[in-house]
Amino acid sequence: MIYLLTLAIAATRFLPHPPNFACLGALGLFAGCYFAGRKAYLVPAAALLISDAVSHLMGTPGMGFYNPMVMAATYLGVTLAVPLGRLVRSRASANVNWRRLPAGALAASTLFFVVSNFGVWLGPWYPATAQGLIACFTNAIPFYGYTLAGDLCFVAVMFGAYELSGAKRSTLAPAVAHTA
Which of 12, 5, 53, 50 is nearest to 28 (CA)? Predict the structure, then answer.
């Protein structure tokens, strides 16, 4: 399931969508809730890497490999959703705490916004000054709305589809044991 989910999310980046309206934050939350150990961190990073590699080979504008500092911040921002997913899970029953899920999506979007834009500021586009930092974050505000909308939408789709599917949660018990 992990491999199929990773490939499916990587493929969604090639569908038409508003900027930053992506599944990656939701995937990190999902992986944090349902996958045990380090695999959970590899899932969103692998989905991003696969789509970046394919888009680089295809010459897709706005995607692919770019400034290493910005890429590192982007990958870090995506994988920070995994520990948030661990927090969304209820410790007592090893099930998703549905009341925490919207807050988890909001936190994942916000962390991605802060970390990725800090990387953009450190990249080649803004001066390394307080005014450059303010300009970077100010210019990124419209993208934050798309990131948040995408995370909320895809969290509802991914978690809802998984719960409705009745899939066995054999990976939950080890995931809880490793993080408790």
Answer: 5
Full pLDDT tens readout for the chain, 180 residues:
666 766 677 777 766 777 878 888 999 999 999 888 988 999 999 988 988 888 888 877 777 788 889 999 999 999 999 999 999 886 655 678 788 899 999 999 999 999 999 999 998 899 999 999 999 999 999 999 999 999 999 999 888 888 888 765 544 444 544 444
Tokens of 93: 């029953």
d(C-alpha 19, C-alpha 77), whole Å: 16
Phi and psi at residue 90, to the nearest 5°: -75, 125
